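In response to the reviewer comment on reproducibility (Comment 2.3), we provide here a single inverse folding case reported in full, input and output, so that an independent group could reproduce the run without further information from us. The structure tokens appear first.
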């Protein structure tokens, strides 16, 4: 006999899946820096001093594959790469702002 009971886990599933997108240690920091205009690879390395280049490259590729950022090759010498938020990525600003507000209010 099937039941139509909705469990707490069912209600949290979208939140759990959302949080999995940001499982990487640097993901939120990288997105914040791109949003702040530090969107060149070298600027990201300079503004996130504790990250290593391999971790940054991996996270950038993951975010690009999720269509949260785009990778733009600038045809200058030397060749430069810039990253920008997609429409989907831009919508995360509200989420991050709400998280900051919550943290500032409760200071856990």
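Designed residues, in position order:
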């Amino acid at each position: 006999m099937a039941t139509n009971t909705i469990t707490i886990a069912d209600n949290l599933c979208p939140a759990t899946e959302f949080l999995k997108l940001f499982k990487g240690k640097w993901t939120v920091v990288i997105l914040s820096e791109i949003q702040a205009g530090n969107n060149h690879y070298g600027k990201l390395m300079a503004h996130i001093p504790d990250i290593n280049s391999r971790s940054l490259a991996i996270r950038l590729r993951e975010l690009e594959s999720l269509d949260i950022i785009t990778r733009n090759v600038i045809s200058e010498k030397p060749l430069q790469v810039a990253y920008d938020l997609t429409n989907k990525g831009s919508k995360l600003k509200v989420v991050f702002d709400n998280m900051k507000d919550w943290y500032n209010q409760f200071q856990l």
